[in-house]
Amino acid sequence: MELNYPIQRRKSRAVKIGDVIIGGGFPIAIQSMTTADTRDVEATVAQVTQLFDAGADIVRLSVLNHQAADKLAEIRARVRKPLVADIHFQYKLALKAIEAGFDKIRINPGNIGAEWKVREVTKAAKAAGVPIRIGVNSGSLPKDLLEQYGHDDPRGFVEAARREIAILEELDFRDIVVSVKSTNTTVAFWAYHMLAQKCDYPLHVGITEAGTLETGTIKSSVGIGAILLTGIGDTIRVSLTADPVHEVRVAKQILQSCALRQEGIEVISCPTCGRCQIDMIPLAEAIERKTRHIKTPLKVAVMGCAVNGPGEAAAADVGIAGGDGKAMLIKKGAIVKIEAESELERMLLDEIEAMTGEKAER
Questions:
Q1: I need a surface site. Which of 72, 259, 311, 354 has the fewest CB within 10 A?
Q2: CB under 8 Å to 342, separation ≥6 — which residues?
Q3: What is the distance, to the nearest Å, from the Cα of residue 248 to the centroid of all Cα atoms in its chain?
Q4: Eight-state DSSP code of residue 142
């Protein structure tokens, strides 16, 4: 009997971001954010395109000032996929982003200023059908909550988020997405769980300021993965001090590792041991790199031991194992072809192309 324990996702209302719907049981969307200066249209459009090509569903741009806001309409005209404007403090920047046709704005109503300013933004967003994400994080907690709870108490994050939600709800606005990101994975875990019990808005999950490529990937994988595995989360962003393309790739792998997205090639490979007789590490890296763009779901095993390789590859759709000068092609644990060891990579790529109908890089 096959055992299957699917994640029971939290029920949340659906919010439409361009042609992507988050919440409501729809697939978890991947977000990233540009690092280009939004005032530089060419650089920004190029990076936005690169992020969507890498697999992002939604891309966010920082709107620093009015010069940046004045470029949003031009960027919008050249990018038809879901774009989010990240706004702080200046309500007129949010109005310009809405007027430019952006699909969502990210604000903290509490730092926009006077109530009439929040009302103006909310009125414009409602008229245009533009959702608002309330973004609470470690650096944006109100002073009174910091004094009461400190930086590392999930109750402070949740209370801050509920205050911001209340401001929009009082204006009869409910097209809301919420995030409560901390740099502390434990704080984030409990903040999201506490908030999930107090509202049904879709939750944007992330570990803010997670760090550089290696440490940030590990921290984000632990934090985001733990939250997702409990059924919480409708959209995610991996925050890395690195090229944002890595954010998208890591996010895709987190979703795949949590069995929440089945897309593309998943390479499983042995850690190697003294029995390994092939140059395993560059081979596994090459297979992963050359098949990264393939969309068809396929589990591929790269094994370095002819003794255990066939058995270890049994869980994969296709795999290879090498040693003693030979290269074995394995399907569902059965050896289907043996060639010279030098043909390992070529043989596997040929089979991946035959099984997916998509070309690998060569």
A1: 354
A2: 327
A3: 5
A4: -
Structure tokens at 145: 């909550």
**39 in Cβ contact with 75 (< 8 Å):** no
CB 313 within 8 A of CB 305: no
The CA R_g of the chain, rounded to the nearest whole Å, is: 23
What is the torsion angle, in degrees rounded to the nearest 10, for the CA atoms of residue 320, residue 321, residue 327 and residue 329?
A: -30
Kindly list the structural domains of the chain, giving each domain's residue range(s) and its CATH number in brackets, ordered by start. 15-257 (3.20.20.20), 265-356 (3.30.413.10)
Prediction pTM value = 0.88
Cα dihedral 50, 54, 58, 60 sign: negative
* Cα–Cα dist 270/305, whole Å: 9
Per-residue pLDDT of 279-323, as tens digits, reads: 778 888 899 899 988 889 998 988 876 666 666 677 788 988 877
Q: Is 132 left (phi over 0), alpha (psi -120 to 50) or beta?
A: beta
> What are the tokens at 239?
């925050």
d(CA 234, CA 224): 11
Tokens of 324: 């003693």
> Mapping DSSP to helix (H, G, I), strand (E, B) and coil, where does residue 307 land?
coil
The dihedrals phi and psi of 207, each to the nearest 5 degrees, come to -110, 110
Predicted confidence (pLDDT) per residue in 231-265, tens digit: 999 999 999 999 999 999 999 999 999 989 888 88
3-state secondary structure of 225: helix
Containing H/E element for 123?
Answer: helix 115-128
